[in-house]
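Our preliminary data section would be incomplete without showing what the modeling component actually yields. Below, a chain of 263 amino acids is followed by its predicted structure, encoded as tokens that our downstream tools consume directly.
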Amino acid sequence: MRVPSPEGVSAGKDESDIYLLRKGAGAMRKFTAGLVLLLVGMVVSPAPAAYIETFDSSNAGWYYGTINNAGDVTTGVAAWQQTGGNGYIVQGASEATNRLYGYQAKNAAIFGELSGMILTVDLQLTGSIAQYEGADPMVRFYIGSLIDETSNYFVSNDLVSWNPNRFTGWQSHKVTLSEENFLRWPNADTGDKTFAQVIATVTDIGLIFTHSSTTFNNFASLGFYGDGAAVAIDNFGTVVPLPTAILLLGAGLVRLALYKRRQ
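Predicted structure:
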């Protein structure tokens, strides 16, 4: 007995051919179902949190710090400026005795979960920063955890930090928040938390201005100084390492694989 030929299928096909066609149609239905699951996954899966401080309307409560040769640190409210509708914070670095030591966020919690994220900042140097005993100045990201008077701090290492003298105008800089890109900060470290533990309990975040990591214990090497120099920053925050869509696509493909396996 011949099975009536469906539209588009030539007469003369036997039952095995029709079975293959039906099997192909079943596979297509499974693929469609999987695609639906993928799309649902893209809708319901939460995107990783990220936050950028743009300073568009104020200094957002950020602080700057200065340091002297005795290691005494003084902090103040960072100056805010606006040019062409774009806001940023800026501080002079022209005092050799009280050098510009860095910038500190008012509220580290606003940057959310940091594990696996990328830190980013736009920085502009006016003038130039003096070397310390032949060592280049270095801009470093830092993260810290200060809980119950116990401090644990990490700073970006020499490989991922940068010499601001090598750039002109506004430049974007990024570093992935992974342990291999950071080293323990000896001058503000009284605890024994690991990098992963600090990432999970960050209470302090910002930029610190130093020279080579081999001179960290020498207070005279900390901070930036240059005749008429100033350091401005903008757009400090976190970004997701991979586009969220790619991550969600991967989750959808996993759902599709599991669905097909159950079938």
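Helices lie at 15-44, 195-200, 244-262. The longest helix spans residues 15-44. Preliminary results of this kind motivate Aim 1 of the renewal.
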